[in-house]
């Protein structure tokens, strides 16, 4: 079966995941269409990060299925490189390569993994750094950049692989309040260009403004989901209401 | 050159300090050959021991248990036995088995004594380098490795481009100690008649009876050789320094 853009780009069906005896995901399902921005919110320990890590096979799952562009992710015969070309990921702790400059961080995967031509890669990398508003920081090492700047390099690095879907795992959680905004603006630009984004976030204002759909997870299940207007103003489940009353 | 030799002749005739390598070109020739042999032995053993260390540390992280066990035995063997015994083992035990028939129809050793010294010393220092590299690898955050996986790097690419370069920086001080020890351990090659500096010096003092003088020359030569290595390591450390990075 070949995937067509009118089908969900990411389809998660009844996913179960345990770490030893601890059940983290207890049957999660969601469909994400191309170009959608999805925010997953919920208390810590509710399995949000685990879920998005399963989407690019950083974690395995014990039950259910996840497909990206029609390709089953948790398949022993999966071409992992094909998946990771489609799905980019940005982490809470940036995880840049500390021994490489900002520009080299962005260029590394296209050069070494995709074996693309150096001149083209460099041109694209410079354009990406410009896009995340880091012109002039090309030759700085991660240790010389602020958290917000490092995170934007990480976004550019991920974009250099030309992914179809971007995963953001609490990407502003480690940042100073004043640098949060610069990263959010970058993500907003991406979303405006039609990039499919799946975010785990604690930025409620941002989720409300940007998301097409909000999922609220607690204790490994989706408690409630809906478009932001309905979700934030008219939550049905008492657990959602309690959570929102604490964070808003 | 003449005044140089005249100085050493004078040093002997007027002060009794008999540095034959100063005024006797034959002795100087064998001594310098010895220095050159020690340098070759050190450089080759350092290179091979670094390769063994890097490859061994990679294999040690392999998902295949049998490979990990093999590396474990390799390390235990070379760490728990004296390097001199290892050298004898290779030269006298393995070396006598590995023979080919030469042009004159007689069996010839396949590997020369110099070759065995390089092999033996590389394995000895390499086994320790595996451990040293591993300590560096353990200092690389798991999240950095995950980021590289998420970008599509496979295990070998992650190791070569991210883990090893970071691990080397952490491991450099202990690596330096081991390599300095390796240079000093090359004297063991004396035992299988590799004409390195100790061997050359011993030949000179047996012929000329100038043990005291040659002992001093020998010690100073090693101080010089190790100083060069330390300088190179220092330059390497400086070149690897990352602006704004902790290690």
Describe this structure in words.
The complex is a heterodimer of chains A (248) and B (247). Chain A is 37% helix and 24% strand. In chain A, the strands form two sheets. Chain A has a six-stranded mixed β-sheet, with helices on both faces. In chain A, strands 2-1-4-5 form a four-stranded antiparallel β-sheet, covered by helices on one side. Chain A has a single domain (10-247), classed as Rossmann fold (3-Layer(aba) Sandwich). Chain A has 248 residues and is α/β, with parallel strands linked by helices. The mean pLDDT of chain A is 90. Chain A has helices at 48-55, 80-86, 102-112, 118-131, 147-159, 177-192, 204-210, 228-233, 238-247; strands at 10-19, 22-32, 37-41, 63-68, 71-72, 87-90, 165-169, 196-200, 213-218, 221-226. In chain A, α3 packs across α4. In chain A, β7 (165-169), α6 and β8 form a beta-alpha-beta unit. By secondary structure, chain B is mostly helical. Chain B has helices at 2-15, 20-23, 25-60, 65-79, 83-97, 113-138, 142-150, 155-185, 197-208, 211-240, and strands at 99-101, 107-109. The interface between A and B is medium-sized, with 31 and 24 residues.
Calculate the terminal CA-CA distance of chain A, rounded to whole Å.
44 Å
N to C succession of SSEs of chain A? EEEHEEHEHHHEHEHEEHH
Number of strands of chain B: 2
> Per DSSP, what share of the residues of chain A sits in E-state strands of 2 or more residues?
15-25%
* Count of all domains of chain B: 1
CATH architecture of chain A: 3-Layer(aba) Sandwich
With helices defined by DSSP (H or I, 4 residues minimum), what is the helix count of chain B? 10
Rg of Cα set of chain A: 18 Å
Morphology of chain B: globular
Number of domains of chain A: 1
Unreliable stretches of chain A:
none
What is the terminal separation of chain B in angstroms? 49 Å
CATH class assignment of chain A: Alpha Beta
SS-derived structural category of chain A: alpha/beta
State the fourth-level CATH superfamily of chain A. P-loop containing nucleotide triphosphate hydrolases
The run of helices and strands of chain B is HHHHHEEHHHHH
CATH topology of chain B: MetI-like fold
Largest sheet of chain B: 2 strands, antiparallel
Mean pLDDT of chain A: 90
Secondary-structure class of chain B? mainly alpha
